[in-house]
Automatic annotation (TrEMBL):
InterPro entries in UniProt: CFAP91, CFAP91_dom
Official protein name in the record: Cilia- and flagella-associated protein 91
Pfam families on file: CFAP91
Keyword terms of this UniProt record: Cell projection, Cytoplasm, Cytoskeleton
Organism, scientific name: Oriolus oriolus
Length: 261
């Protein structure tokens, strides 16, 4: 039964209203048969537009019943005149329907164009904001570069102004050792000093740690108390049984003695 499809499953269920069979007598023409083209979902249930169509069908049937017979030239002329008037009325109604349809289409087009313009404006705003951010970043970077170049040029001018006449000055050793930012304490690489070349100069070199003889001498100088430890196990303050368990009374006595002290 797993692959069996029944006759009453949801996909085959009836969704349209039931229309019973009917028989029309030859002498009668029911008015409801003029609405046979309307089906559920396409005209039914009837709205304002469908009611207007029904009223027009009734008016046309009444007009057809009021037409004069074609038995005399005067009746024929009158009939043609009435038919021309009805035709002009039909064309006017059709033009009105076309105008309404065009207005609806125009409103839809306006709405679509408005939504399209709003979306385009949003995209343009996002694009302009991104470009503005990029320009701001470029502006900040340019200002930072200008400030850095300005500070560099100012330092050069200050250094150049110190010896404006270009006179040779003798080295003042006392002044250099008194100034911790001088070449004595902080030499520059552009002057030929590379601190990484002599990095091991500041490493600690110990005779007792780096040589075997120093280690032997260091061991001789160490007293025996360092290598030979004498640690006594502390005596328990509580009563201990043969199995090594401390009784509750002993623990309580120790706590009370500690509190008393």
């Amino acid at each position: 039964t797993l692959g069996t499809q029944t006759d009453y499953r949801d996909g085959e269920a009836q969704t349209d209203p039931y229309s019973p069979e009917y028989v029309v007598h030859s002498s009668s023409v029911p008015e409801i048969l003029t609405l046979a083209v309307l089906t559920w979902g396409r005209g039914l249930p009837a709205g304002q537009a469908e009611m207007e169509i029904i009223d027009r069908i009734r008016e046309k049937r009444a007009w057809e019943a009021a037409l004069p017979p074609m038995d005399s030239p005067s009746n024929i002329a009158k009939r043609l005149k009435m038919m021309e008037a009805m035709e002009r009325k039909e064309w006017a109604y059709r033009e009105e329907e076309i105008d309404k349809l065009q207005k609806v289409q125009l409103a839809v087009f306006k709405k679509l164009l408005q939504s399209r313009e709003e979306n385009q404006n949003e995209l343009d705003a996002v694009r302009l904001y991104i470009q503005w951010q990029n320009h701001q970043k470029a502006k900040k970077e340019k200002m930072r570069k200008i400030q850095r170049d300005c500070a560099l040029m100012l330092r050069k001018l200050i250094a150049k102004r110190k010896n404006l006449m270009g006179k040779l000055e003798r080295r003042d050793i006392i002044k250099e050792y008194n100034d911790f930012s001088s070449q004595t304490y902080a030499p520059l690489s552009r002057n030929g000093f590379f601190p990484d070349n002599n990095s091991d100069y500041y490493a600690v070199k110990n005779f007792y740690l780096n040589t075997f003889a120093g280690l032997c001498e260091l061991e001789k100088s160490v007293p025996d108390s360092v290598s030979q430890l004498k640690i006594k196990a502390p005596k328990p303050k509580c009563t201990i049984t043969k199995t090594g368990y401390i009784k509750k009374s002993g623990r309580l006595d120790a706590v009370l003695a500690q509190v008393h002290q």
